[in-house]
Amino acid sequence: MSNTFQKYNLPSALLGALAKMQYDCPTAIQDQVIPVALTGQDILGSSKTGSGKTAAFSIPVVAQLMDRPEASVLVLAPTRELAEQVAGVISSMVRGCTHLRTVLLIGGEPIGKQLMRLRTNPNIIVGTPGRVEDHLCRGSLHLHRTTFLVLDEIDRMLDMGFSIQIDKIIKRLPIERQTLMFSATLDRNIERLAGSYLRQPARINVEVSDGEPKNIEEESLYVPEAAKFQVLLEQLNQREGSIIVFVRTQVKADSISYQLQQANFKVCAIHGGLKQHQRKRVVKDFRNKHYTIIVATDVAARGLDIDHIKHVINYDFPQAAEDYTHRIGRTGRAGATGFALSMISSPQERRLWRIIHNDPVEKEVKKPFRKNTNFNRFRSRSF
Asked: Most CB within 10 Å of its CB: which of 100, 124, 335, 373?
């Protein structure tokens, strides 16, 4: 049988929707998750960013919802942007199925509109832990009949301090349910959580094989803090295509964005300090190429699925390996080649860079920054 979605015996309505969405062949993570999820088994899954993970859990859940009108699903995601992306994908899959109704529960949106949607008894609920817990406390959301639970990017939810909210939410769910948990990285905390929330899960970890091309080229550059902006200008002038510049704080995002605007770059900032409608506008304009550059905090590192991002520049190096993975995973998507540059300004950051890339960690001598030096030493890595 050819490698298409027809081999999974999905409902015809879902196959039609996938065709309209131009989903032709399953990705590696989809090919492993979908048949297992359709059996009802819990799953602990991990794969590189941009691998089609959202469809990997959405397709089997939607397939079962189409066959079971009484069933319902709760999908939890760490950020508003990722929750919106997931809700959009699922809505496209169920378009035309009148008995399947979706509600998006995220902060920054009018709660009155969400209350009205909840009164229609939706069977597909997508949201962030904070807003979902809020509705539970209000009594506007009831989860005692939930059939499926999806925890998307659980590692990020833990990093953002949502563990207490997640635990409270899960206590409201039936014990008899199917749970699908996904993380870009797997560590002891994730394994421990899986032991609490999952029952004999299938463990699916899709990594890039030795024979698969690695399509993100990475480089690091030691730059004193005071020289970073000048180096950024030089790098932007050398690069073509859409670019994300990551910084550590909201204030710096606004500052760098303003300075780049003054230098005649088409740029905008995105961070958690913006209202939800402002963040949606920035993402929409960047997706439509009204801007060629966005300056972002880590709020945009997860769930920002834009295929035309060519470059990621870590103006401020991330403080954890997981954040590095998700930042540079914004490029090199859908099989395209991507480039990631990290500016490193301290021995601690250099040490973390070496740990991330499995290089020997040793005492290093700082090299002075030399303006206009060509940095052509790339190393590729799977994501």
From this structure: 124
